[in-house]
Each structure stands twice: as C-alpha cells, then as structure tokens.
Amino acid sequence: MPIWTLHGNGRTVEPGRVVAPDERLGWGATVAIGVQHVVAMFGATFLVPVLTGFPVATTLLFSGLGTLLFLVVTRNKLPSYLGSSFAFIAPVTAATASGGMGSALAGIVAVGLLLAAVGFVVQFVGVEWVDRFMPPVVAGAIVALIGFNLAPVAWSSYEVAPFTATVTLVSVILFSVWFRGFLGRIAIFLAVVVGYLVAVVRGEVDYTAVRNAAWVGLPEFHVADFASPGTWSVIAMFLPVVLVLIAENVGHVRAVATMTDASVNRQTGRALIADGAATTLAGFFGGSGTTTYGENIGVMAATRVYSTAAYWVAGLTAILLAMSPKVGALFNSIPAGVLGGVTTALYGLIGIIGIKIWVDNRVDFSRPVNQYTGAVSLVIAIAGFNVAWGDFQLGAIVLGAAAALLIYHLGNLIARWRRTGADDGGPIPAVGPLGGDPVDGR
C-alpha cells in the first residue's frame, strides 16, 4: 500500500515548492483535489463513448480502474489520470459501422497490447528510438490527420439541428477566450451544458431511457470479438493510434518531470506499459481506449499538487460514479445538435494539436521531405482515401499514417544520399492541455 509523507503543515503548498508525487496534503484537501481531477477529465472522457455509441458508465468504470492500474504499474511515482482517448474515435466509428462493437473492441485490445509491448522495449532500451522513428513532423502529421479525418462526422451531426449546434459551437469559443484557469480548461464541458439546455427548450432531448434506468447498478459490458471474419480487416485501422498514444504518454511524462523531478523520466516505459494494460482491459469488456490527460496536467500546474494520492481518490470516485446507470443514460441523451457543435470544435482541435507539434518544434517546411510528409498524409485523411482487397480494407487513417512514415524515412534516405536537404527530426514534444491561461499570461 503506498505511503505518502505530509507536505508542510498539510494545508497549504509551501512557497516556491510543489507537492511531490510521494507527498500529500491533509486528507480533506487531497479528496477535494481528487474530485477536481474527476471534474477536469469528465468533460472529455464522457464525450468519447457518446460519440462512438459505447456505454458511458462502462467507459467511466474502466477509466477509474485504468487510473488505479496505472498508479500500481508506475509504482506510485507518476501522477496521471487515464481518460478516454480521442484518437480512437475515428477507427472505432468505422469499425462499429462495418463489424459491430465487438470488432471495434478487438481493435482497442490490439492497440493496448502493442502499446504495452512498446513500453517493455522502452523500459529496457530507452525512448530514443521512438524519437528517431516518429520525429515531430511525422508525429504532428499523424495527430492532425486523425482529427481532420473526422470532419464529415461532425457535419453529419451538425446538420441535424443547426441552431443548437451553432449555439454550442459559439459557446465553446466564447468560454475558451473568456475564462481563465480551470474554467477555461473545461470550456468544452461548459458548452455542452449550454447546448443541452438549449436543446431541452427546443424539445430535442428524449428522456425515455433516463426514466427507465436504475439509480444503482453495474455498467453494461460487451466482449471483444476476435472470431468474426470482419474483425481482422478493421484492426489495421487502429494501429496508427499506437503512435498517438506513444506521443501523448511520452509528452505527459516529460511534462510532469519538468514540473517536479527529472528522475520521473525513468517511468516512461512503465507509463506506456500501464496505459497499454489499461486500454487492453477496457477493450476486452466494453470500455473506450485510454490515455494520459492534459486536462489533469493543467489542474496539477494550477494547484502545484502532484501527489499520486489525489489520483487514487480520482480513480475511486470515477468507479463509484460508474455504478449509476441513470448517470450514463443522462449523458447518452445528449442530442445530435449539441454533439455537432462541440465536435466541430473538438475534431478541429485534435488537428491543431498536430500543427502545434510542428510549430513548437520549428519543423522546417522549406525541405521537400517535410512538405510532402505533411501534405500527402493530410489530404489522404481529409479526402477519406481507402484501399480494399476483398473483405480487407485500409482506411484513410492507416494510409495517411503509413504515407507520413514512408515519405519521411525513405525521402530522408534519398535526400542524405543526394545531399538535397534531409531533416534530422528531433524528440517527441510534450502535448499540453487545450484551453486555460496562455503561457505568457496575456
């Protein structure tokens, strides 16, 4: 059982210091901060199952269990909450449409197992090879194409109720630029609340399922289906998600290490193993794939509390919330118009995170190899390219990610040989939280 030393007087954070992962404040403050972490992750975590048709309560359950598993695997040294990963939305949506939920869950399991395998390699070999395989221009392209590939999905929901969708979208933007700190970081969640209230007034919400749901009960479980012939044809479209999860986890570890202690970087391999194990567990029984959450980094930066004790509280709180089917039914009642407005912003932001990786790392787009790495992969994703051999298909995300990797590495090989301007890449950057206070405070 983990033991934390008391920070200072247990009530306040000492000036110029942070509460380290192996420290804690008094239990009252620790519980309050843990609940705050749940609120911070909730707006994004519940959206993924709502958008993909997965049970919200089940996703919340495995989010909490995954967080506790993460803390155990990382030996209680790395504070993190594991919430639903947006990177899974596109492949899950496509897999569910073609092979059903069981096939989509099999894809999530495959991602989890591969991510854990990468984690074991990183743990024993180091993370430098990941930096060489997926430098910023490639990492940025893959993250961006996953977001932009979802643009038609956002429009299909938006056009159902344009007025409600527009109010929701305007609310996202307004809250993001109006609020500072914590409220700015949960702007999407606040916008969903506003859009939902507008939808209620306009009679667009159906409460039948909410009325019929019990207050207390186990979540709805589904089992991954590896037996259906169509499953193996959709698993390939999940594989690029592994690259995104690697970037998110490595970035999370580096961000925490920068704000606490450089020795935290030694937990990188364990973080990948833990997230892989949590994603595998969720996929086997009906939950969404997980990842470390930038929203919770924002909470830690604002409070200066990096205690893993707060995350034990957060994980347990999420598990308790998952035991109410009525809560899950309420979130599933969010109408298409609200989802259309919020996803127009959300999917675009996923794309912008990829572009931000390029900007933060000053990717040199005067070099042809970088130009075509980004250009070709994004067009493939936005246009929805696909290739089929009988029942086996490769979708736009797979083709776009493969194009980014092949163009970059083969192009660099030729450019070095011909001395026409190769790109030497660089480390994977930290992917920070969206929204909240700007870095310079202006």
TrEMBL record:
Pfam family, one: Xan_ur_permease
Membrane topology: Multi-pass membrane protein
GO molecular function terms noted in the UniProt entry: xanthine transmembrane transporter activity
Keywords assigned: Membrane, Transmembrane, Transmembrane helix, Transport
Transmembrane segments: 25-48, 54-73, 80-98, 104-125, 137-155, 161-179, 186-203, 223-246, 305-324, 336-359, 371-389, 395-415
Listed InterPro entries: NCS2
Gene Ontology CC: one annotated term: plasma membrane
Signal peptide range: none
Location in the cell: Membrane
Family, similarity comment: Belongs to the nucleobase:cation symporter-2 (NCS2) (TC 2.A.40) family.
PANTHER family hit by this protein: PURINE PERMEASE C1399.01C-RELATED, URIC ACID TRANSPORTER UACT
Protein's recorded name: Permease family protein
Organism: Tessaracoccus oleiagri
